[in-house]
Predict the 3D structure of the following.
Amino acid sequence: MEFNNQLSIYLQIADHVCDRIQLREWAPEEKIPSVRELAVTLEVNPNTVMRSYEHLQQLGVIYTRRGLGYFVAPDAVAKITALRKELFLQEELPQFFRKIYLLGIGLDELKDRYEKFKNRQAKAH
Amino acid sequence: MVSLHDLTFSYPGSKPVLDGLSLTLEPGRIYGLLGQNGAGKSTLLYQLAGLLFPDSGTCRVGNYEPSRREPAFLQSVYIVPETFRLPDLSVQSYVRLHAPFYPGFNAEICQSILQQFLITGNDKLSSLSHGQQKKFHIAFAIATGAKLLLLDEPTNGLDIPSKQQFRKIIAGHLREDQCMVISTHQVRDLDSLIDDILILNEGRILLQAPVSLITERLVFKKVKSHGESGKPLYAEEALGGFAVIARNTNEESSRLDMELLFNAALSGNDSILPILQD
């Protein structure tokens, strides 16, 4: 996994786990890799993975079963979607607005393009 | 697990390399030891391994004083020096002859790491390349299960896949009762492994802090212009703008840029270090 230089590693690991869950690679109620296994896969310090797992546990995305390890929460996908939507609206959208404002791109033009994009997506699936 | 107090050491006829150095290390953590060339990183590791003795001050590792070189101490520490010579033996014979010195030696772990590094038992140590010898030494070191593992520039001479494997091996084998100290200039090779930063400068520890604490109090980012992040504590020109260190006032989460922090700490900047001290 390539880590980017901006976000702290433990949050990037948490993101990686959320991706696996959102893409249904790790199903609800399924056991996820142990701290050690994920540390080896991602070549990071196990203490860092531990921190990521604790973070995800607090968010209710994963939970532990005593002595058995970590599992995907039943409603993990919905939770991740809600969290990411919130993050997008708070962080990315203002930046996006700033750019279209600076470039003088109007909402009408965006709307046309977005409709076309949606059609292409629908066809692809 | 390790505690040094006011330790001073000089090589014959020169000024002290370690000069009143104090340091405490805990088990279950990986320490990244950074310092300029000649700062005394290797000297410090040799002190911990019982290969050099303090002129004054104290050095304790577990319940031992390394300079007494008691067998029980020597069984519990292992150092992979930056340069070394291995004898003219096969991998197998070396392991057979040296493993008995380490009661915790795990032959299976040794075997599996050697396999990952593509080194086989019949290989002659002296005919291996420098990088392969280093990998052999690292495999042996991890297999000893030593409580204190000292690695001096472990990724020097390793090719790209081996560096990746090295990270996997360290991530996979650190136990809670073990402490690792890795000295390095190649911070980009190792920064995802390091729990705590140690910066050695002018014979003392200039900075010791967990990565988590550093990123809690400081934020590392790229900005297009100086003004963008308020007043940075430290800035360096970088591609596309500036790499800056600023006070983390908004609970931002950023990734520690070890090179930038190292340069800032050594630049004589007096605003950053106090923020990291309790």
